Amino acid sequence: MAERIDIARLGERLRRVRTRRELTLRQVADATKISIPTLSRIERGGANEIESDTLLALSEWLGDPVESLADKRMPRPPGKKESDATPDVVELYLRADKKLDKKTASALANMFRTAYDTLVEQKEK
Fold first, then answer.
1. How far is 40 from 122, CA to CA, in rounded Å?
2. Alpha-carbon separation of residue 52 from 4, 40, 57, 60, 85 (angstroms)
3. Which whole number is the average pLDDT over 10-38?
4. pTM of the predicted model, to two decimals?
5. Is the confidence at residue 83, as pLDDT, over 80?
6. Containing domain of residue 112, as a range?
7. C-alpha–C-alpha distance, residues 119 and 125, integer Å
8. Are 122 and 67 found together in one domain?
9. Whether residue 121 sits in one domain with residue 105
10. What is each CA distance from 69 to 12, 19, 22, 26, 116, in whole angstroms?
11. CA-CA distance, 39 to 29, in Å (whole number)?
């Protein structure tokens, strides 16, 4: 694969989708055929690299094209709701801010995404 995968972002996305679907690591492991320790390491940001078959399985399970997990942000894929893009745009700006280190930008992006998702869910009720 020519492009480097943003494993930290993959881990954040994996945890977010797993918790939104109210699934355990065991259930994701059963569905993807990826071990629980590997899934946990990816979610925690403890993975330094990821094997291609693991990446493909997670990409399929998440419903995201592999290219969207690259270090650079890809445009919103067709079929994604506009509301899915707002937190991504905010995260993009936070990651581009030279005054923020990577951990701070990631934490702020997660906080925004959590607040955004909560408000969207409340509005839909």
1. 30
2. 11, 17, 9, 12, 26
3. 93
4. 0.55
5. no
6. 75-125
7. 10
8. no
9. yes
10. 11, 19, 22, 23, 21
11. 7
